[in-house]
Amino acid sequence: xxxxxxxxxxxxxxxxxxxxxxxxxxxxxxxxxxxxxxxxxxxxxxxxxxxxxxxxxxxxxxxxxxxxxxxxxxxxxxxxxxxxxxxxxxxxxxxxxxxxxxxxxxxxxxxxxxxxxxxxxxxxxxxxxxxxxxxxxxxxxxxxxxxxxxxxxxxxxxxxxxxxxxxxxxxxxxxxxxxxxxxxxxxxxxxxxxxxxxxxxxxxxxxxxxxxxxxxxxxxxxxxxxxxxxxxxxxxxxxxxxxxxxxxxxxxxxxxxxxxxxxxxxxxxxxxxxxxxxxxxxxxxxxxxxxxxxxxxxxxxxxxx
Length: 305
What we know:
The chain has helices at residues 4-14, 122-125, 141-156, 161-184, 200-211, 219-226, 230-241, 245-263, 268-274, 280-291, 295-302, and strands spanning 20-27, 31-34, 40-47, 50-53, 61-63, 68-71, 77-80, 88-89, 96-100, 105-113, 131-133. By secondary structure, it is α+β, with helices and mostly antiparallel strands. It has 2 domains: 4-184, Regulatory protein AraC (Jelly Rolls); 199-302, Orthogonal Bundle (Arc Repressor Mutant, subunit A). The strands form 2 sheets. The chain has a 6-stranded mixed sheet with strand order 9-1-10-3-6-11, covered by helices on one side. Strands 5-4-7-2-8 form a 5-stranded mixed sheet, with no helix packed on it. A hairpin with a 7-residue loop joins strand 4 (50-53) and strand 5. Helix 6 crosses helix 7 (230-241). The longest helix is centred in the middle third of the chain and has 24 residues, at 161-184. The two termini are 36 Å apart. The relative contact order is 0.14.
């Protein structure tokens, strides 16, 4: 399917550090409040059931075994065995939490992905506040297989679980986003990133941009590569992605630069060249205009520790 490599590239660029997660073993009655976080919060129901009490008084969502939920903006919310159960604050520093009394048991995995929120990518910024993916044997088999394996690993504490669990948690963000985008392709809306999965020309142009962000792309170049007229390509790209091709190209260049500055020690001149700037000065000026800070200072002060 077109677009999947681009999606992986987007997620890798937006992530600023490893995920944190904790096994939560609870027995009714129980309730957990989650404060707002700088990243994206996720929950998996591995065994039992849970109610998600979404932000800003939204309708409670019933969740069963195999369900996944992502709150891409990390908004305040709660989980409970029943919407009326008493709440306690969730402590993200506890890797294995046991809570509750002697009622029905639920096993959850709760965690957070660290994401760069300064310049959110359209694929993430257009997501709803709550992405709920119910377990469905007929859909998203890879996602639900991963959830099932996580449940087994966390409940049995078998040798090697310390290596298996973090790898699966890392993969889950892409699996959840892919599943949600695939659901949206049934009825894609205007400015919905899901349309990039159903429009081969747009998907191909994104792959070209992501493969060579430093190339001197023009709208005409990209249109010719995907076999469309300039006007038709520009219209279809803008409708699917939510912004014109060259605006997206500029955005992706700066996103790539930020990633290189965070994750690598390449000289600024090398970073500038890789994303298509002829000089370090021109790159530094553009980067400061977008991020409000010089690239050297960004690397020094904003790189994760």
